[in-house]
Amino acid sequence: MDALSKNTLAKLAFFQLLIAVLLFLPAWTLHFWQAWLFWVVFTAAQLTITVYFLRTDPHLIENRLKAGPRAESRPAQKLILFFAVILSLALVILPGLDHRLGWSVAPVPWVLLGDLGVVAGMSITFFVFRANTHAAATVKVEENQQVISTGVYGIVRHPMYFGALVLFIATPLLLALSGRFSSFLCFSPCSPSASSTKSASYVPISPATQPTAKKSAST
User: Which residue intervals of 132-196 are DSSP H helices?
Assistant: First the structure.
């Protein structure tokens, strides 16, 4: 196993462990089947995407690892991503509190619909990466980069943002978070659904699958 693969898989393992802690610690119990379902589906999707592109497009993975507010060069981008990270953390933490304190009870079909949404959002991410090897995690233009108009880019102008929107809506559904909190998190000014047309955005997924904005290629 090469150094890039070791580094990427180590960061992915740490990230998934962090997600598990943020899911179950606020709930103060492991008897939270919605969280288990989310964590298993989310981890499996991320691992599949990461392993696939480590084998087929290491350059993409290397660019995806340079992510987050610190990786951005423009102050506005740093600020937007900082607040987006906070909202993303809330998206994972609040369902545990909801489960512990009994704020709401979501019907099983609601949760299963969220499960399908998480799979759909991660699938869109996969097809974006396969179509665009320059899908870096920060706003930049690389040499020989071209506008992408095939694959998912031929269907949606900004497929990465669309996938992030699907994921942001589906996650609270899957985790049985009450509707009022779901609406606040998904449509607040710093969430991908609200800022997708003007800036790079962050969702609670690893750097290898975090959405981004591009200048010369649609996202």
Answer: 159-174, 179-187, 192-195
Find tokens 């981004």 and name the residue. Answer: 212
Burial class (CB within 10 angstroms; exposed 0-12, middle 13-18, buried 19+) of 36: middle
- Residue 123 to residues 48, 100, 188, 213: CA-CA distances in angstroms? 10, 31, 24, 18
All structural domains of the chain: 3-209 (1.20.120)
17 neighbors 81 (Cβ within 8 angstroms)? no
Distance CA 51, CA 8 (A): 9
Output the CA–CA distances (angstroms, integers) from residue 209 to 18, 40, 130, in the order listed.
16, 16, 12
pLDDT in tens, 121-160: 999 999 999 988 877 665 555 666 677 777 788 888 888 8
